[in-house]
Inverse folding.
């Protein structure tokens, strides 16, 4: 409210205790390698940062109370993973996807449970997940099956993995940041009693 824009970034590195930190670590170990492999390391970094900023902005627009945002980027990663699965559902093995989908449900449930007693805003999780899904949808590389029967090798199909386009990811990231940073100018965030006294 007083020009401290860095507060939209710094909470993504803060956790509300050991359980909150453990949830982030478990989610990143489960989904991070999959998203990094699918989108590429640069786009993974963009998803992580964008998820943190959008989650913190959603929290800021929803509540005047201070909140940590360490799990925001994790929900963005899960959202991007979900979009990758949906867009490539015809060529991805179902067993591994179903296992990770169950983990996503458990992580989401635990995130909401942890939001109740501590300074964790569930709106941050929602905003980050939605942004991760939107960004993931726009940047997801497509997998395709290539026929290897005419190459002299064994007959069959080969999975061809395309890497994400870094320039496309950067341009879409810049557009997202521009749109997100303009929201506080058009929407009135809720004010706490402390903010009103300060103003």
């Amino acid at each position: 409210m007083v020009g401290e824009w860095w507060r939209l970034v710094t909470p993504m590195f803060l956790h509300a205790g050991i359980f909150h930190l453990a949830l982030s670590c478990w989610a990143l170990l489960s989904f991070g390698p999959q998203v990094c492999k699918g989108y590429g390391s640069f786009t993974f970094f963009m998803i992580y940062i964008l998820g943190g900023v959008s989650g913190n902005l959603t929290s800021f627009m929803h509540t005047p109370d201070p909140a940590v945002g360490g799990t925001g980027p994790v929900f963005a990663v899960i959202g991007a993973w979900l979009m990758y699965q949906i867009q490539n559902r015809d060529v991805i093995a179902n067993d591994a996807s179903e296992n990770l989908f169950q983990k996503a449900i458990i992580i989401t449930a635990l995130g909401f449970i942890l939001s109740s007693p501590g300074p964790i805003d569930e709106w941050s999780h929602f905003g980050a997940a939605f942004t991760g899904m939107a960004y993931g949808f726009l940047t997801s590389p497509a997998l395709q099956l290539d026929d290897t029967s005419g190459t002299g090798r064994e007959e069959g199909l080969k999975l061809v993995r395309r890497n994400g386009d870094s320039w496309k990811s950067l341009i879409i990231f810049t557009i997202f940041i521009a749109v997100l940073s303009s929201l506080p100018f058009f929407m009135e965030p809720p004010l706490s009693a402390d903010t009103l006294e300060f103003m």
